[in-house]
Write a structure and sequence with these properties.
- This protein has eleven helices and ten strands.
- With 350 residues, the chain is an alpha/beta fold.
- Helix 4 links the parallel strand 5 and strand 6.
- The protein is globular and about 55 Å long.
Length: 350
């Protein structure tokens, strides 16, 4: 039965080729934010949000900078870079944690990845690890020069897929003095082997499809996509993994944003398959905090990367009791626990 579920999921969500952009509900928040308790207006003396843009390798990147209450540009504040999940945008969970940590006195930046969200880049929804890692470095480039920022106290928080890319970025970019991940998702091993090793047998076929898709793009043909499928409630209920069931609800219903999309170019598979966030973890010599839900079926990825991090003398694994992967994105009691742990870790090491 599980094999049938995996085949259904593969058919409906992974192997479906999509070329259209799926309509999603428009946001009503003036800043486009879709998380609970989001800022609706900038009020003097409170946490404020500042939409900004900057250039990265010729592309215009869209970002939001959150400044602490009573922000004074003549003072220096510690700074945090937020890397959003795969398919996510800055207005969702990355923005929530940016706002909550700005409340703790940090300048925080959350940017849409290049080729995604409101940032530039063609083809749309290209999802290559090198791009995502460069996006993180680009956020650091920008926020380190922001008025009031203390570039010597620069931290990094990666969420889900952004967590895997944060680990990779921090391995060589030592501007990041402390690294944290939340519900880390190792995009490379999942695109290669399938979630929980569910697609091992189909890798040769998928690589051939990716190569053909790249050839078609190079010849000026149609851009082919994986994912982005619209599912019925019954189909969602039959998805074989809790992360995908709850993720569909989060991204398509409860926290939907018009710029967020689960689809990505089929040609990206060529690059994704060669990536593994847990490779070279020994290069991380900065303090490391990895947070995951105790009930998250994605926990095996956090566990693997954490065990491989033998280059740092300061590392900590923090489990949020009772939480699943997606629930760490928005459930107040779980978010409160994560923010509390992040604050204490950053205060100690940043």
């Amino acid at each position: 039965m599980k094999k049938q579920f995996i085949q259904l999921f593969t058919c409906l969500l992974i192997m479906t080729i999509q070329t259209g952009i799926y309509a999603q509900p428009k946001t009503v928040n003036p800043f486009g934010l879709v998380y609970g308790g989001a800022i609706k207006e900038n009020v003097l003396g409170k946490v404020n949000i500042h939409p900004v843009s900057y250039k990265l390798n010729g592309l215009t990147i869209a970002a939001n900078v959150y400044t602490p209450a009573g922000f004074d540009t003549t003072k220096k504040y510690p700074v945090l870079v937020m890397a959003h999940p795969n398919g996510g945008v800055k207005e969702q969970v990355a923005g929530l944690y940016a706002q909550r940590l700005a409340e703790q006195g940090y300048i925080c930046i959350a940017a849409d990845a290049s080729y995604q969200g409101a940032s530039e880049g063609q083809p749309r929804n290209t999802d290559k690890p090198a791009n995502r890692i460069e996006d993180i470095r680009g956020m650091a480039d920008y926020i380190a020069r922001y008025k009031g920022a203390d570039a010597d106290r620069l931290g990094l928080l990666g969420i889900c897929g952004g967590g895997g890319y944060a680990l990779a970025a921090a391995q060589t970019d030592k501007r990041f003095k402390v690294i944290a991940t939340l519900s880390m998702f190792n995009s490379g091993i999942v695109r290669r082997d399938g979630y929980m090793n569910s697609q091992l047998a189909t890798l040769p076929q998928r690589l051939r499809q990716a190569a053909n898709a790249r050839a078609k793009e190079a010849a000026g043909g149609e851009v082919l996509y994986i994912g982005g499928t619209t599912l019925t409630d019954a189909q969602v209920a039959q998805l074989p993994f809790e992360l995908y069931r709850q993720g569909y609800e989060y991204y398509n219903k409860s926290h939907a944003h018009p710029n967020s999309s689960s689809r990505y170019t089929m040609s990206s598979i060529i690059d994704l398959v060669a990536f593994d966030a847990s490779t070279n973890m020994r290069l991380i010599d900065q303090p490391l905090l990895m947070i995951a839900g105790s009930k998250a079926d994605s926990y095996y990825m956090t566990d693997s990367a954490y065990k491989a991090a033998n280059g740092t003398t300061t590392k900590e694994l923090f489990l949020i009791e009772g939480a699943t992967h997606i629930e760490t994105y928005y459930v107040p009691t779980y978010v409160d626990q994560a923010v509390g742990k992040l604050r204490s870790f950053f205060v100690k090491h940043l």
